[in-house]
Amino acid sequence: MPDAVKSRRPISQEGNCDALQELLDQLHEVSDIDERVYILYEVNKMIFEAISAAEEAQVEVMDDVAIQKIAVAIIYNNTLEEVLTRFPDQLYQLPYVQQVEDIARLLIHFECEVTDHIEVIWNSQIDKEEAIGENIYILMQSLALDLSATHIEWLSEHLVDSWPPTNIQHQNRILQLFLTVSRNDLDGLTIHKLLSALWNLSHRKDILPQIMDDIFEILVKILKYYYDDDIESPKFSWLIKCVKEFQDDTLWEVPSMILMKKLFCSYKPYTKLMHQKERRFCRESTIDYLQSKYNLIAMIVQSLTVYINKIKSCLVDDPKFIIDGHYTHNQQVEERLEFLSFLLKEGRQAISLNQSVEIWKSLIENPVSRSDHTLCLEWFEKLLSQGQDLDPVSVNIIFVNKILTLPTTNMCEIGFRCFKAFFLATNTMQKRLEHKKDHLIVRDPELVGLDYIWNIILSANDKIAAAATDLLRQVSIHIKLKMPTSQIKYHDLHIKKFFTLLKSNYDTPVDIDMKKLTTVRRVSKVLCDYVEGFERTCRKGRQNLPLKIATRGNDMLLITQFTKPMRNVPDFDFFTHENDIFLSLRKCIWRKVRSYCSMELTYEDTLLKPEYHSFICNLHELGRQRCDRLRDTSRQLLYLLSCQPKTVEAINAVFNDVGSHKADFQHMFFDGNPTEGCDKNTMCSIFMEILKICKLILLTVCGIVGKPSFGGAVICSKELPASRKLVQEALTTILAKGSDVTMLKVTRLLSKQLLILMKNDHNIAYGVLFKNAQAWQLPSNAGVIQITRLIWATSSGNIQAFYGSNEVLHSLCASNNTLETEEISLYQRALELLSIAVVTNPNGLQLFCYDKVFPLFLSDLLLLNPNHMLRMAAAEQILIIFVCAEQNRKVFQRIRALLFALIKDQTIDKHASMTHELFYLLCQIISYDKAWNHADTLLNEETGWLRNTSSPHPVLLEGHLRLTTALLDCVKSTRKQEVGDTYGGNLIKILLENVLFPASKIMNYLRTTKRKIKDTVSVSVCDTPNSRAAAFNLLNALCENWKQIRITEQQDAVHFYLLLVGCLKEALAKLEGPRVLHALEGTFSDQIICKECPHQYLREESFSIISVNIKNHKNLQSSLEEYVKAEILEGDNAYFCDQCQKKVATIKRLCIKDLPKTMVIQLKRFEYDRRLGCTVKFNDHFEFPRDIDMLPYTIVGLNKNGEDVVSYNTDKDNYHTKYKLSGIVIHSGEASGKA
Asked: Does the keyword Hydrolase apply (predicted)?
């Protein structure tokens, strides 16, 4: 203890000093931590009361006699040492350590030039456990802003000396303490000592790179906190110091660059709005100054070369090798290149050709490891992509002499990106390429590096080859040559080059090696992309249409001319398509002419002979056996080629040969195995075309059967009751769900044409096809079974099992296979076809419904299938089948009974997450047939299920709730009331207490009985938005005969608040009650102050809420400042002064005149986006304080700060502007209202 303190004695008088001495004596006597915490609390309380008394008396705290007596007493009794050293184990408790804070702060201020007290605190954590050290550092953090310069100097020395080499947590605590201490109001000498301590600390050999980076961050923050951006600033001196360190110490080159980069970043970036003085000391100017004085870029490049040579001399090829004790080889190279990029970009500097070549030689031609190669290519790629372009000569030299010499076999992704950047830059600079908004235009096909792209495609790995293929496509499509013949010749040579490569590498599936197979696959992909890309960009249609649109053909304009002039009929034209039939054209012309005449159609253009079909078919077979990707690419090529004439003739022969084919789907398409030997994708394609043909036939036949007569044809006697009406209604239901608009139009036209033909030839109605249709046997019963099997197999993603047994199909239904787009489309088309087949052959459906496998079929499609999209498609089509089967009540009742049996099955709990579609279908069926006798019975079962359930799956709960709602619509209103009230099912109480609000039930019971309900869950079982919505819908349905309850209405919080305040105002006004809402109201002052004349315009308006913008603001204070910011109206936007009768420059401002006692502020997180055409929500980080003073945003505050406002006298005693935050309302969800 200092002698000055020993001479002092605590004043033992009555009052606080005696009480304090008694507390300090007790502190020495007791050892229990709780008692010691209480004593320290009482001591702190006495200190606080003494300080408060001194502040009220407006006396300097340390000059107050009472404070001095307390400090002397604490020092004399060694209280600080007693608390921190006597019982070290008590320091594990942070609340105990925190009680020392006020005592230590008092002593530090009382003896600001003495380090004894800070030394006691520091020594208490030496050689102690980690937890104790952390608590003591928390204490020192709290005291950091109270330390004097003497304390800080002593502490910084000990922080550096006590640096733990391996304890990272302790290191972070020391650095954080450095940063906190620096926030004191320090003099220049103390700041320099702090910075020097950090600098010396960073030079320790045991410092890790991450910790060194943290040290630099703190050092830069201290410099930025205290100093400005100018050449005389110590911040600039530290930059010079880093440059000198880089030049003198080769082991500290990387740390010097890192610190220089951080220091450069502390300067403001250059902007056009800067003042002249700011521009002199911006980031760009600072870098430019140092570059001109020290030639930083050349220094960094030379450093990289020297470093690489030094590593090579050590015969080290390990990228993790550390030469300077801190950074690995990869980090050494990466940091140099990154700093070089930083100087080029931020300083707007240029790198010379020689320097670029030197970097290339060091890292590409003379690398230490493979990573050098990657880092160098990545750096050069960024050099061009970030706009730091070299001159055209340098780009061309590096591209031709360096990049095009790289081997392509082991090219990596970054290597290709570097090649692409230089390829585009070189050819653009030479005006061979031209960049447009979304594509490239080739002005000269002789592109530099084009052959290199082909080498990449043929020899690189698949990922790089695919990227090169895309680049080749981009520079091969948009060819803009001066002569059209040159353009045609170019494309012709391009196609021949593709097929020359293909044929030179093609071989049989058995003999071809993997290298040739890869070449064939990649060249086929390039060819396919080229043809597809060119076809998309070409405005004119092709003469020989591709197979994908060959059924219709291109649109064309048909010009009609008359060889002999006809009276009152001029020449005319009309639109048609290339594959339109001759009879249709004749009708169009006759309709125009309104008379019959002989006519002849001519078309001068000739068809080009299709080529390469057989070769591409061979490629497809090769791909089918050896390579799936080649198979898919060759199939795309076949779609792009036009159809061979032989193929067209073969198809016509099949469909015109009536005598050798039976008009039934089973015999036409499903007998035998038409997909034998096919892969999965080919099977999907085959069955897709089969379904299209079947649908076309059925829709056409339905269009005829549904007519009142066959145009005079004889109707078969096997017609079902009300058959035509059934067909018409069923087709209306089915076709409303269809998406194939073109097919529907074709079938309508085709059925009309067939009816016309039947007028002239009754024998057509006796054909096999129409006989089966009139007998309601198209498709046959076996055909219906085959369609259902196709649906069954496709639903599991195992179409190959189509010809397997029912047991195999059922066993595969639960497989979690990912279906491709083609399989999903095939599944949906098969379901649509089954819906149509129900109309044309209802007996087939009845037989299948009573088959023993039908329940399995239903459960597999609706319950066991893991794909939600497939289950929903099945539910929608089964609903259509259900509606179409209404005339056949047996089928109707059978399907409904099976569906209800599914939800009662014991296995439904196992598949509860997949029951949504099943319940959806049941609800739709119930709503379709409300006059159902069994609805009451099922309603009782559902009510019992809801009453007895405890914690069901949310999807299962939602389904039962929606099913109960649907069943309620089938019973009478009296029965509905019985179900809801106490005398019936008591369903309303079940919903409120068991399903929706069980916590409310528990709280109500506890409030009335003072006891808790045992074994009761307080969390709602409706834990998803959908289940809650279903519960509320059911509650609404039960209450619909009572007063209407709009429980589903949602309102914005601000809208609700304003509506509530408005309603209360209106009610109070009618009752002539007191103005109790005055506390919620303030007054705005809308002011316009003329600058050129003495006139002022004021308008006051009351408000209940202040709405501020959060966009581009970080906190509430910034938003409020913008809210009251003045707007200058001048020029064309000047204000017209009524008194001056002219436009004058004015200041327009909206500010607050009177503040409410309770203020509501809305943060406007929503804004209408004109580009997106919808309201968007801002989820930006936004801060608001717990306490705020609104004075700066009022007229009084603005006037006080010298702003131009119209002021007025206020009652300062009653003018309160300080508010404390008391509540927050948070909007959860999106702008659309979705939670």
From this structure: yes
